[in-house]
Structure formats: C-alpha cells, structure tokens
Amino acid sequence: MAGLMVNGRQVQVSGTTRRLSDALRFDAGLTGTKTGCDAGDCGACTVLLNGQPVCACLTPVARAEGRAVTTVESDDPLLCRLRASFLRHGAAQCGICTPGMLMAGLALLRAEPRPSRAKAEAALGGVLCRCTGYRAIITAICLALEPESGEAAPAGAVGQSVPRLDGAAKVAGDLFGADVWQAGGLVLRAIRSPHPHAAFCFGDLAAWAAAHRAQVFTAADIPGRNAFGVIPAFADQPALAEGVARFRGEAVALVAVEDDGADPDLTGFPVEWQPLPAVLAEDAETAAPIHPARPGNLLIQGRVRRGDVAAVLAGSAFTITGEMQTAHVEHAYIEPEAGSAWMEGDVLCIRACTQAPGMDREDTAVVLGLPVERVRILPSAVGGGFGAKLDLSVQPLLGLAALKTGRPVRMVFSRAESMQATTKRHPGRMRAEIGCDAAGRLTGLSFDGAFDTGPYASWGPTVANRVPVHASGPYRMPAIHATARALHSHGPVSGAFRGFGVPQAALMQETLIDRLAEAAGIDPLEFRLRNALQPGDATATGQVLMAPGIAECLQALQPHWARARAITSATAGRRRGVGLATCWYGCGNTSLPNPSTIRMCITPQGAVVLHQGATDIGQGSNTVIPQIAAQALGLPLGALRLIGPDTAHTPDAGKTSASRQTYVSGRAAQAAGRALRADMLRRLNMGDGARLALDGSILTGAEGGQVARLDLATLPANAMGYALMAEETYDPPTAPLDGDGQGKPYAVYGFGAQMVELEVDMALGTIHLQKITAAHDLGRAINPMLARGQIEGGIAQGIGLALMEEYIPGRTDNLHDYLIPTTSDVPEIESLLVEVPDPEGPYGAKGLGEHTLIPTAPAILNAIRHATGIAINRVPVLPHRLLAAIREGRG
Amino acid sequence: MFAYIQYQPSDPPVSRHARPATLDEAIGLLAEGWQVLAGGTDLYPATQAQSLPGAMVDVTALPDLQGIVQTATGLRIGAAVTWSDLAAAGLPPACRALQQAARQVGGWQIQNAGTLGGNLCNASPAADGAVPLLVLGAWVELAGPQGTRRMPLADFLQGPRRTALRLGEVLVALHLPAQALAGTSSFAKLGARAHLVISVVMVAVRVQMMAGRISDVALAVGACAPTARRIAPLEPALIGLSPEAALEQITAQTLAPHLAPIDDIRADRGYRLEAAAELLRRSLTEAAAWQG
C-alpha cells in the first residue's frame, strides 16, 4: 500500500503501475474522477498533480507518491467559484465530462484568472464533451471570477432560466453507472466476437472456469427468451449469441470473477471461431438473408405517397436530382455503458445508465424469464445517451449473473466494447429528385433511401417510417413518393441516434432545395420562406398543422442572412460561404402510443413530492418537468421534492427519446399539477383564481380578500403516505398511417432553421467554421438556458456528422481515431428562440432535442457549395475528399 | 472447419515496477528485459488492463534524462523532458518549430506527462517530435550495457514502431548541433479537428535568411513515410532564392520521390503529398517572415 496526498488528505492505495484513476476510484472511493476511455483521449479523468492537469488513467500510482493530487472532490475555494459558474452558465448537461472540465479549468484559472476564450479553448482542448457544444463551458471558465449579479435567482416559473435542479450533483462528480457497486461481489466481463460474422463453439468451459476461479455463462444459461428488441414485433437480438455471431463485438459469453481489484484474466478462453462471409450494406439486397424470414435482407420499408410525382416532376419548370451518402456515426457519449445488479428477496435490481427504464424492465424480464414485477430498474445518472442507451446493453447480462449466482455483480464496458457493441446512426444511401414551378413553388419530391440497419432490428423500423414522413422538409409538397428501406448487414447494429434517420434525409433534401432555388433564380432563404408550411397547410402525410413555426424561424434569420451574405471578403487563400438549412421533426412515437404518467403528491407534513420517471440524460427533464408541474400546481418550484426515475417508485414516463419528454411527460406533469391543485381548491372551497401557499402542514388559499386554510395533517395518509395525490397520464393523439403513409403520425412538431458562415481553404480542403446562427421554434421555452444548451449541443454533433465522424469497425473503435469535435471545432453560436405555441403542448411547448442537430450538416454543405460551387454528396467532408472534389470541379 | 483463434481481450495481470535514481541501475534492469516507462501516454492506451503488464523501469527520475542545457557543441535536451517543459523553455528561434509542436501534442494533460524521448522511441510515423528535430539536425544519445553511443535521429528512426535501440539501451538525450540552431523554424500539422489532432500530414521548416535570400534551409515531413523524413535533396536548390521564388520549388511532384505516403482512413496518398507541399510552403513563408 502506498500513501497518496489527495485533496490535502492522506489516502492509502495499492499498486505501482496501476492507473491512478483506478486507485482513486476503488481504493480511495473518490468516484468523482470519471473513466471515459482509459487511453488519454477524452480527458474525463483529469486530475491535478502538483497543480498541473494530467490524465489519471495514464498516470502510474507510483508517480503520484509525494505529490499533491487534486480531484473534483476538493473544497478548493477557486474550484467552488468555478462550480457555481458552471451552474450559472448551464455548462454541465449530463455531467460526465464536468469533473475533467472543472479540473483543467481550475489549473487554468490559477495561472490566469480571466483567460481569453482562445486560451480557455486551448486549455480545455484535451477534454471531450458530447452534450454542450463547449460554448457554455468556455463561458463559465472565462467568467468564473466575475462578480455574481445582484439579481435574485429566478424562482423557476415557466419561461425562466433556473439552473438545473440536479446541477449541484453534476459539478461535484455525479454517480453514474460505474460509480455505485457493492463490495465483495462479482465483476462481469463479456467475451465478444472478433469477426463480423462467424460460427463459434466452446471448448471445455467448466475446466477453464475452474482454472480461472471464474463462473461462465452462455446463451444456454438464459432462462427466458433470448431475443430482445425495442420494438417487440421485431425483437431479434440475443443477449448472448447462440452459435453464430453476426457483428464484430457481439457478446457470446460472460465471465464473472471475484471483484478483488485485479484485472480479470480472460486469456485462453475456450472459444473457436469459424469466420463466415459477411453481408455488406451495398449488396444486402442480393445477398443471402441474415434472417431467413426477411428475404432480400429487408427488415421493413416505409413509404409516403401523395399525387403522381413522376408526372408532376416531368411538368415542373425546374427539377434537380442528386445523391447523398452518410457513414456510421457513433454516439460517443463519454460514459461507457455500466451498471450493477443485486437481488432483494426475489426481486432483481439493476442499476445502470439508461434512457428507457420501463422498456429495460420489460425486455430484461422477458430474457430472464421473470415476471415483470420481479425486475426493478434504478437508472443511474446517465453520462450521455443520444439514442444508444435506449437499447439494452449491460442490463440482461448483469441480470443473468445476479440471478444465477445470487450475488451482487457489476459490469463496466471498456471504450472499445462500448463502441463495438452498441448501436450507431444508420448509414444512408439516398437519391432524390425535386421540382418547382416558374414562381419557385415546390411541385414534388421523389426520394428513396437505403439504410444499413446491421444484423438486428433495433430502431430500424422507426428510421424507415420517420424518414419518408419527414422527407419533404417543413414545406408544402403537393406530390411526393418517398421510400426508406432498412436493410440488414453484418455491420454494427444501427439504432436510434438523435433524429432517427431524419438528419441523413435532411442532408439529401436540404441540399437539393438549395440547388433548386439557384436553378429558379431565387434567394435560398426566400425560396424556403415561399414554401414554408403555414397554419392550416397539410403536410405530405395529409395532416393539417395548426402551429408550424418554420416561417417565423426563417424570418428570424433574415437580418442575419442579409448581413452574412453581404460579406464577400475572406482570409487569403480561403473562400467564404454562407449556407442555410431547415428542419421539422415530429415529437413522440410515429403513430404509436407512447404515454407518460406523472404522480404529484403532498404529505400530511406539507411536503410536495413529484414522482417523475423521465430519465434526464443531460437534456434537462429533471428541471423542466418540475418547472411545468410547479407552474400548474401554483406553488414555487423550490417547494417541490423530486423523486427521480426508479421503476419501484415512479410511474412510467416512457423513454427519453423522440424529443418527447418536455412535450409528453410535460403534459402529464401539467395535468398532475392541475389535478392536485383542483383537489386542494375543492377542499379549500375556492376557485381556480386562488393563490396557494404552504406553511408547514398548513395549506392556504387566498383570492380577493378571502382566505381559506387546510391543515394537511388532519387528512388521512394513503398507502404511499400522502395526504393528497394526483396521477395523470398523457398520450399524444395520433392516427395510424395508411399504406401510402397518409395520416397523423405526430400530434406536435418542432421547427428550426440554421445559418452557417464558414471559409474553405482552397489548397488544403479544410473547413473553418466562423459562426452558426440557429433559430428554433420550440413553442414555449420552459427554460431558455437549457434550451440554448440543447441547440449548442445538437449543433456540435451536426458539425461532427458533416466534417469528421465515420465509424469503421475494428479501425476507429476508440476516441483517438474516431474524431468528435473539440473545444475549438465549435464556432460562435447565436441562438434565436422562436415561440409559436402549439395548443397541444404544455404551455405551448414543443420538442427541441433532436431538431437542433438536423439542419447543421446540410447548412454546412450548402455553405461549402456557396463558397466553392461544389455540391458535396458524401459526409463526412474530410479534407482530402473536399480537395479532390475541388480539383475535379465536380458538382 | 473451425480455425482456432485465441481471443485475448486483456493482458495477464503481472506487473513489476522500479523507479531507479541512477542510469546504471536502469540499464541493469533493461538488460534483464524490463521495459522503459516514461510519460506513459503511449503505454497505457496500448492495454485494457488497469496496471501495466510486465516489468517497467520508470526513467522519469533519472537526472541524466532531465533538463535542457547549453553545451560546448550546441543544446542538450534530456529525453524525459515533457512537452510542457519544452514549450515553456527559453530556446533560440530555430527551436520555435519544436515548441510549436510541443503545444500541439494531444491536450494539456498529455503535454504535462508525455516526454520527447518517449515520443521518439514510440516511433510512430506521425510522431510530433520528429519533424522539428530533423530540421534541427538532432542526434540521439543512447546509453546501454556497452556504454554510450550517438547517432543522427534520422538513423535512429527505422520504421513504424522500430528504432535503433538495442536490448538494454535507453534514449538519454537529444543533441542539437550549434550550426543548426541558426535561423528560425516553423511547424504545422493537419488533421480533421482543432485539438487532439492525429495528423494527416505534419511538416517543419528551418530557414536562415541573408539580405532577403535563403542562406540555409531544412525541410522535414511526417506521416508521409514509414518514418518522418528530412527532405535534404530538395534543400540546396532553395539556397540563394527569395522565399517567394523558393515556394515554386516545393510541390507534390518535387516531394514525391522523397516520400512514401499511404492511403488510409484519414487521407489518401495524393492528398498527403499535396498537403505536405502546401504546408511546407506556408511554413517556409511564415518562418522567413518571422525572422525578417
């Protein structure tokens, strides 16, 4: 054992060349230091060694002896100032990178109390963040030592930028999937396929297990149905493969060993592989089917058809055709999947990072052959999700081991496992033709997209259905024929990723619109405005919209557009371009039920308790839903106590996906707040205009000089211990789509438009982003600071999609070769919050989370074309690809 | 039939460690097969294990590997000097490229831990330290059981992950000859993002000007061949030219015979040559202007 001086205290740790991060977390119990990659690529584990930032994952314990180690748990006064600044400026979203950002920021502030943005960006360039887009973090660091404004913090009414309610935990080093476990249990590792397609068989597992003092589990041990999937009708993915592995990284066996701190020894695990030919996306339709029941490897095709598009396009004044190709994109949240499981009586408890506790519970119960009542899901803080933590990852594996052994067990995916084993954005190969009349009115669109869904269904059906519905963009489109096919391959499993295929389709459609406007001789913004959906217009699915805000978004951009397009000068050797793109996106499931239930209660002692089961993956539902509920109830936000997601304590608020939580769970929260208020007013015998107040157990209502009081302590407590309780459910009113995709797929849509200013280095093919102006119609900004955070974070991911991200199995399954944007890759962002209230949304609110990513990449491509005349048809636009296109002068 | 492939997701959990205070002690352990541990920024990413597998000699406490000092023949840089040390040191303008490279290696955290010697011994074709040291005509000093020897850096770097180090030897220092410390230098690297760049191409140029004309010049390119390379055959043709005139001599065509770039996920061969030429031209212009 060695003694280390950590935050001024002596701690005992073991090891010499052991990673300092591991020693801090497991020996010293300081889990605020996060592990994102174990390779120095993400900076989440940044600690200070004698005041200098280092990656704890690359630091031998022995080297820290005799030096001062500072971690996020320190009570350093400057660090406290910085934490407060992070909260004030909305610099923490999911919180997984926050400790690393804080430590690097602390080192910088000690050297330079008021750094420039450039200095701060350089100092934090070694810490990756996937949520915030970095802008708020840099602001929080640069302004950390500015005196706080004397204004009182907002009370948290709807429309106020109250700091996130779970923020204090985020800036202290929150408890994520890997951060809570029981001592004396087991640690679980998966054996994974090194091949994209291979038959396998096991040797003498019992002998190997005995020699390694391990327990081994395979598909043969799974007591239930070894097939899961987010859409039950398509469930086809085994928790552990049976005889054949269908993608590189698929789990085939589990090894559980004593959790004694040693690295599990998996050498010589007895499995033999017979590599088999792998189906590639390009020839999926002619290859032998991966699933015999799905000929042509077609999982599903979605379609929207309206009018005779071929005839319409043939008769159009202008038409443009094009193709677009996108890559596999990795979610690259900084928290690899992790969790722990244990038995409480005969109930299996699983604590893990997830976006969908209810679905986890149902699917895990099916795999393990348990009644759903015997599974409890306790979501941890989630270090980023963006769609990939909707599918099961560690849950059935942990569950199997805990169930079989009866012992507590934990599992943490390595970065490589996280990238190999979880879902990706569907690569798309699209072609389309679009037309308009002589006046620049859109006439029709034909669109076809093939999406590589990998070997298992996951969210492939959702992509195939969402893409045709959104293919028109937020425009009047009299005729359309849009199809999207989800095709199986032996590539990575493609699933949900912020936008479900719509960002890929928007790359196709919004670049075509730009070229069509040029052909028609109309300014690109004016062209879009001319075609923008207006209240009362029907969409391509025949749905009449009451509150489309796309025209308002474009109008909000107009002055910025005029300014930006007037500038023609550029840095020497570069050309300037300004481009634009729009989005629309339906909130909630496509024509399927997706109810949320929220419970709001008050104890006999007068504590207002909100049971809110929506998982906050950084987007802010832990704050926004309480803001809505408090507003509906008519008591201040500060009066609420929050009980977060836990299937034992919160009713099902559905999954955190499809930009549905603010809208759907928000509506349920609004209804619960109103119902509880109505119950209170009835007991006070007062009208809805009364002002409520709480003083201990005494509830007071006052209106027009009349005052009434109710002592809650006199009310009998119900089975849950509450004096009053309201539980309300909301499910969006949608209607099924017919065979031509006609119907009402969503009850609420959000809209947006973004403008990108950039320069292209004509000799190197590099892109230099200068500014992005983003106008988003979110109906009502419940919390403007959190909304801006969603916009900045979505834009950062859009930049990655456009310019650098391409997941190649076996080649880029680390954060070294798989590039996501760093601090200086995200330019200045000006957010314009447009509020066109939707009558269906809570206080008029619409969804925003996914919308923000959709316009960025096509706006970048349109700006590149404005600068160079080159129409790009493949992303990411890596420098060598752009230079080749410039040299060929191809369109 | 089944092909037997042993799957090894993790290393055997055997690790030993020493942090000697003398070079002799370190060499003794290395001769027994122990491995050098310097900054750790390349060793830890290479394993999934929590402790480094094998026996490691931490060389960062060895006085011989520390410090940047003026010697009778030039400048001596200890191999365990970190990037942050290098960036903060007061060095002549000829070393500017080296200091620019030091500020662009990984992030701040990597710069605080990673060492110049470790970067060279790791022998990546894209090693950030190699190109600025090549234009400075650097020599390496190696110490081993048979004593000390020196050789040009260009001979030390033998290929991807291959150096001239023999069993028991450790890289002790870099020596920059005085005649190469004249003039100014500039470094540039290119990748698809702003920080934590894994370079597609990197270059360094050192130039000495006299009355507006180039009197001495050195060019080097990284990530375009199995090792970083000095482009010495092209250099004499630039002597006596103005910087503007010299630019015409640096093209993808004139570089091609001296480099061997590959196609990979980051770029293709043709782009690497074009970008190397463009970055060399820009760096030459910048270095000359900085001096002028």
Automatic annotation (TrEMBL), chain A:
Gene3D superfamilies: 3.10.20.30, [2Fe-2S]-binding domain, Aldehyde oxidase/xanthine dehydrogenase, a/b hammerhead, Aldehyde oxidase/xanthine dehydrogenase, molybdopterin binding domain. SMART domains: Ald_Xan_dh_C (SM01008). It holds the Pfam family Fer2_2. It comes from the Bacteria. InterPro entries: 2Fe-2S-bd, 2Fe-2S-bd_dom_sf, 2Fe-2S_ferredoxin-like_sf, 2Fe-2S_ferredoxin-type, 2Fe2S_fd_BS, Ald_Oxase/Xan_DH_a/b, Ald_Oxase/Xan_DH_a/b_sf, Ald_Oxase/xanthine_DH-like. Keywords: Iron, Metal-binding, Oxidoreductase. Residues 1-75 form the 2Fe-2S ferredoxin-type domain. The keyword Endoplasmic reticulum does not apply. Belongs to the xanthine dehydrogenase family. This is Molybdopterin cofactor-binding domain-containing protein. It comes from Gemmobacter denitrificans. The lineage of its organism: Bacteria, Pseudomonadati, Pseudomonadota, Alphaproteobacteria, Rhodobacterales.
